[in-house]
Amino acid sequence: MQNHAGAELSLKEENIKKAGKLLIDPDNVFWALLFDQGRNEAARKKILSLYNKRRKELDASMRDFRFTTEFNSVYINPTDICNANCPYCYIPPSKRRSGKSLDNRKLLYILRKLDKFFAPYRKIRKTKPMIIYHASEPLLMKGMIFSSIEKFHKKFHFGIQTNAILLEKKDVEFLKSHKVSVGISLDSLDPKINDLTRKAKGTTNYSRAIQAIKWFNGYHGLNVITTVTKHNVKGLAGLVRFLHSNKVSCVLLNPVRATRKAVIKLRPGTAELTKYFIEAVNAAIEVSKRSKRRIIIGNFSNIVLGISAPKARRLMCDISPCGGGRCFFAVTPDGSMIPCGEFVGLKEFCGGNIFKTSVKKAVFSKGFKKVRSRVVEDIPECDVCIYRNVCGSPCPAELYSLSKDVKGVSPYCEFYKKIIEYAFALIAQGKTKYLFRKDALSDIKFEYSLNI
Question: Is the distance from CB of 26 to CB of 440 less than 8 angstroms?
């Protein structure tokens, strides 16, 4: 990797009181903000002295973070079938209507096989790996899934992503008692807008999701996932305030991924997305400041971590290579092992079938290696961007679906640049503490700092 130490960018974010200079090494994300122009030369000398002392260590740390293959989770799609018909779903409509499902015997086989695969990692990390039930609608297989959680809760942490249509109060109590991480999909506070993208027959995701959030009543393991489209983008700040009032501590505002060409028309414009996303960030800070409870926007907090504590990032989309096929992979109902759920339907990335192939063989398959080989240094425009190791230019599955090439610039490139710049502005204003959960802050300690 090449080093570009000392790259400069003027920060003119209107919400930062003083225009400043950002000094950054894009390869290891060593950075400094300068504001007092009269003291810049003396400040630069002190900064460069610290940088030269830490550079090799930081380079090695970032290389280790980016290129070490160490799995910690697996997404299991128990069924292709769904009780909704969301237009932006990455699973093809034909599969959602009449696809395959796992039976109990096959699911238990998968979990036993994964238990053996994770045995060496469990010894090294001293923690349990994560199994996330995902894809179409896992609660269609509720009884089987809950039974597997009871059988394997000592071996794995579990998570589940659901539209909440089938969620009952007794299910909430079960999930809480087993400390299951739960993601509930909700796109808007306006039922009509929500149902434009969260379509369901006979009932609405909206009313069921709202009810489930109230049932969870501040449960620490609950996240709300909002897919941001042109339809709901203007209401993000209001949604954040509502979720905070209902004791939700984390929401992910994920710009829609166009892994199918038909989804492109749902993307919001860059300027609009940036404006309303930042409004939502400000709303989260505002309600968190005046309350004992906080709400964070998980994917924005991950960006802030990418700046202030790069190796502490949890969401592995914002780095290259991404986490697909490196930190996690997905298993589909027919047994296919793919680098990430977004690769459903892209047969060239399949690493084999878990009922016939070893997990290790899948890890070293051509498809998995192709995802792990995607680095920003090989992508024109990204290779000279000073934010390349904060953003990571996601998502390879989206890019491949649209162009048959993983090594392209993200369609959200300008959006990422703006929110990264805004993250620097908030750091400069000392608002970082409002961007993380309180318990997360206790785990973060300064390795170096320099106030001039």
Answer: no
